[in-house]
Every structure is written in structure tokens, then in C-alpha cells.
Amino acid sequence: MSASLSSAGPTGPLGHIYRTTEQVRAELGTAPVSLDATRDPAVYKQEQDKIFRKTWLKVATGWEIPNPGDWKVKEIAVAGASVIIVRGKDGVVRAFHNVCTHRGNKVIPSTGFETHGRARANVLTCRFHGWVFSTDGPLKSVPMKDAFGELDTACLGLRPIACDMWEGFVFINFDPAPAQSLADFLGDFGRLFAGYPYHESTTAFRYSTVLESNWKVALYAFSEGYHVPTIHAGSLPGFSGVEHTDFKLMGPHASSTIYGGGMDTAPSTLAFAKILHGADAHCPHPEQLPADINATRRSDFQFELPTIFPNFIIHLASGCGYPGLSFFTHQFWPLDHGRTLWEGTNYFRPAQNAAEDVAQRHVNALHRNAWLEDTATMEDTFTGIMSGVIDEMQLMDNEFMIRHAAQALDTMLSA
Amino acid sequence: MPDAIAPLPAAFAQLQGFTERWALPTENQRSAVRWTTSKDEFATFHESVMPHLDAIMTALADKPIPPADPALRSLYLLACAFAEAAPHHDLYNGSAKVPFSFDAHRFEAAHGDVAY
Predict the structure, then answer these.
(1) What pLDDT is recorded for position A228?
(2) A263/B contact by beta carbon, under 8 A
(3) Three-class SS of residue A379?
(4) Cα–Cα nearest to A364, from B80, B46, B34
(5) Which of A87, A252, A284, B19 has the most CB atoms within 10 Å of its CB?
(6) Could you tell me which residues of chain B have a Cβ less than 8 Å from any Cβ in chain A?
(7) Best B35, B65, B95 residue to mutate vs chain A (most A CBs within 10 Å)
(8) Are A34 and A392 in contact (CB under 8 A)?
(9) C-alpha dist (Å) from residue B105 to A130, A208, B31
(10) What letter would DSSP give residue B7?
(11) Closest by CA position to A204, among listed A14, A339, A60
């Protein structure tokens, strides 16, 4: 694997985000990085208050809730919140605390970390006493209202959470008055990744698990390509010519590109790939990539590898890596200092027939198996860190996004 | 959705013996079978289906998901199982567990109980 750039990259509106290896070393340093932030439970409390309750967090996609009245409840332990994300009658996606303003019951009972449903007649009704809220927030009716003596229903709507969308991804911010708009927060990252038709890839294979690990261990494990030849020797045999390059820094976010010559493909995979590569919806579409991702349109492009502060990753492939795979995402939700909910989702354009569906299931299985290899390291790594035997991470060039994320977290915590 | 698995189309009758074990309507059910499959069973399944894979894909190429025809639905479910099982023969030397991996039982598939 190599990591080099003879020049910083393309010029143009986003030319300033590119970095050579030498520039990354100069800007971020090369010294070992302390593990205190991962090991110390007190840092987790600071992360809750200064990061997860203050910054924009991706919580849904618009195509999960495509119709008015569609809702999703997401349990977000790191903020101590249950959140309703709902598309109103006007088509606008909003977020509310899943808390009835009567006595605090959950308006929508939830199961697990995510629950989906659809509001009847665009109202949400608390099952405890039947208080009825419009999907855009206001309290619409209260059973036996006259028996309350006085009740200012105008002030008792669902408690809103700042909510905005970028390219079909729904973000929320628990800060009642966010310091930045979502657009300003994403900044150059939002511009770099804008324009890809994410919303067309509505077929989602989503996996999750609870890891006995600090969330940053999981984030960092998915933030570099250094591990590919070793961890993925089973699921990606003979993967050749891996090049991790096109380094980009964008405020608290960073990105890079994985190129590669492919792997020793099994005959079964070749047969399934033939189905997907023969369909316009699923074949490689390098021309759909945003202009500054694989800017030179190299034919060995595999996927773009970013980290989006603080806990989200979009690996954009446009069908160029795994056959038919449009993009895939990872998200890392702290449940406690030493427990993390990992969510990984493979996104495809909808299969048009049963053969395409079967082929997508094969690709999904291959990639899920690679994730099983990835996640195998995380609990062991955290156990090792907590043992106190080492105090620092040694990071090479391809691990620059770990160094960058650690510095971005330190900056936020010290603000 | 019908629960009974209809006989495969006549052109694939030689694969009928695999349907009872493998032609299951959900990913979670198919995963449960994969996790208890031996190296020899993966090999037999793979070596029996692989010569017909292109024909199976052709038969499913213009069909809805899942196919309305009961026989083609059985073929579709068998193909789904093969799609998910093939890597264990091709890549993992017949191991039901992905080598050096996380416990697959701990992965929860949001779509895992959706039946076709």
C-alpha cells in the first residue's frame, strides 16, 4: 500500500482542501497520539456535553421516511434522548423530543435503538392519556381538557430539536441555539460530497451491534485503509495495488481515496457481478462522482473514505468498488464510555428484478463479512488500551484521519 | 406470502433436494442455516448450484421480487441462500464462521426478518 501525492491535487474551488503526505505530516504532526481520551471515562462526560449535545448529528435519511406522516424514533443514549424524526403534512422533516408534554411519557413507544412507523391522519398520540400532537409539533387535543382548570395548550407542543437536511441525510443538533448552521458545519465537506444522487439508493441492508468498546476505537478502525491487506485477507483475497491517497482536510472533517487493482474474484462473484454490471442502474458510474472525488477519474477508484465529525462516515463508491454498491455508511453511537452502538448500512439502487436482487444480496454478504472482520478488532483493542500497557497510538500516513479526528475532538473539548 | 416451498421449475429439478434446507424466506433464517453448515455441505451445495447459476439468473432476470410464480419463488429463495453461502466455500475454506471475525450472531440485520 502506498500513500503519496506528488502534488496537492486539483486546483479549483476546492483545491485548498487537498494535502500531500508531506503537508499532512507538517500540519498534523507525526508524533504518537495519546490514548487518554479513549481511556478516561471523564473525557466521555465532556464529549457528551461539548460534542454530542452541541454538534450536528446524522440521524436518518429522507428516503427512510418518504411520505407525510412517516416517522422514525431514534434512541440516542449519549444525549440521554429519545428523538422523533417525522415528515409533516407539508413534506418537511422535523425532529422532536419523544416526550409527552403532559407528564413525560414517550409519545411513541420504541423498541430497540430505532423504531419506524407512520402517523395516522398526521397526528402522534401519546398512548398514556391520549394527548394528540400534530406531526409538525403543536398539541392538537387533550382528553378531558376542561378538567385541567387551566392548560395553555399553545405552549405544550412537542419540544423541537434543531433539524436540517443535507443531500437527503437528516441531521439534528441538541443545542437549542446551534452555533453553526448545518451548511456551515459541513462546510467544504458538504461541497465536496454534494451532487451525488444518494436519494436514488433506497435499498438498504443495515446491520448493527453493541460493541464493548469506546466509540472512538470503532470510529478509528473504519478511518484508515492500512488494515485492508491483513484484516481482510479472508474476504478480500489478493487485493492488489491498494493506494490510499488524495488526502483532504476540511475543518473537523477529513477524507481520502482508496484506489486498488481489485481482488481474486470467485466465479460465483463474477456471475453475480455480471448481472449488476449489465444494468445501467448498478454498473460503475464514475461520472456521477462529485468533481473533486477521484478528480482525475482513475479507473481503479474503489471508494472515497471520509470521516465526518464526530461519528459518521459515508464511503462513496458509485458502483466502482464492490459490484453495484452505490455507497455505504458507518455510524458510531456511544452508549457509555465503554459501550458503542455501531451501525453499518450498504446502499444500492433498487433491484429491478429478482436476479438483480439476488446479486445484491451476494455483494451485501461479501461486504457484511468484511465488516465482521473489521469489528473483530475493536473489543480487543479497547481491552488493550484499558489495560494501561500502552499510552499512545503510533500512526502512519494512511492513518492521518485518526490523528485529525483526535485533534478535532481535543479542539472541541478544550473550547 | 406463502410459507410452503413449491417444487422448483422442471429445468432445475436436480436442485430440489436443497430446497428444504436452504430455500427460506428471510435472511435471518438463511443465516441460521449457514452457521450450522459443514465444510462438506457447503461444498456439495456450491458444486451443485454453480453449474446452473447463469441459468438461474436468466430465469429470474425479468421476474418481480419475489417472483409470483411459486416454482420461481422457490428458485429465487434458493438463489438467495446460494448468494449468501457461496463465500464460505469460495473464500473461507468451508468454514461456517468468517475466519478471525466478530461473532456473526451479534450482528442484527434490520431487514433480517423481512420475508419474501
Answers:
(1) 86
(2) no
(3) helix
(4) B80
(5) A87
(6) 27, 46, 50, 53-54, 57-58, 60-67, 72, 76, 79-80, 82-84, 86-87, 90-92, 98-102, 104, 106-111
(7) B65
(8) yes
(9) 39, 11, 9
(10) P
(11) A60
A225/A239 Cα distance (integer angstroms): 12
- Give pLDDT tens digits for A212-263: 999 999 999 999 988 988 899 888 887 777 888 999 999 999 999 999 887 7
User: Which of A207, A361, A373 is the closest to B83 by Cβ?
Assistant: A361
Taking only the tens place, the pLDDT of each residue in A131-174 is 999 999 999 999 999 999 999 999 999 999 999 999 999 999 99
Residue A5 makes CB contacts below 8 A (sequence gap 6+) with: A18, A19, A20, A21, A245, A246, A247
Name the β-bridge partners of A306: A255
Position A410: which residue type?
A: D
| Residue pair A135/A123 in contact by the 8 Å Cβ criterion | yes
- Name the 3-class secondary structure at B63: coil
Assigned C-alpha cell, A116: 419506524
Residues of A in contact with B64 (CB under 8 A): 353-354
Q: What is the pLDDT averaged over residues A80-84?
A: 98
Do you know the residue count of chain B? Answer: 116
**Which residues of B are less than 8 Å from A372 in CB distance?**
98, 101-102, 104, 107
Calpha distance A272→A250 (Å, rounded): 38
A39 pLDDT higher than 70:
yes
Q: Residue A40 and residue A32: Cα distance in Å, rounded?
A: 18
Tell me, yes or no, if A113 comes closer than 8 A to chain B by beta carbon: no
B83 three-class SS: helix
Do the Cβ atoms of B110 and A355 come within 8 Å?
Answer: no
The string of DSSP letters for A308-361 reads BTTTEEEEE-TTTTTTT--EEEEEEEEEETTEEEEEEEEEEPPPSSHHHHHHHH
Q: How far is residue B107's CA from residue B90's CA, in Å, rounded to a whole number? A: 22
Out of A206, A267, A353, name the one closest to residue B110 (CB).
A206
- The dihedrals phi and psi of A103, each to the nearest 5 degrees, come to -140, 10
Q: What is the DSSP string of A3-14?
A: ---SS----STT
Burial classification of residue B86, based on how many CB atoms lie within 10 Å of its CB (0-12 exposed, 13-18 middle, 19 or more buried): buried
CA–CA separation, A242 vs A41, rounded Å?
A: 37
Q: Report how far apart, in Å, the C-alpha atoms of A202 and of each of A61, A348, A381, A395, B109 are.
A: 9, 7, 34, 36, 16
Residue A371: closest CA among A257, A235, A275, A252: A235
Of A203-212, A222-231, A357-366, give the lowest mean pLDDT range.
A222-231
- The Cβ of residue A281 has, within 10 Å, a number of other Cβ atoms equal to 17
Contact residues for B103 (Cβ-Cβ < 8 A; gap 6+): none
Nearest-by-CA chain B residue for A211: B106
- Give the number of A-B residue pairs with CB atoms closer than 8 Å: 120
Identify the three-state secondary structure at position A292: coil
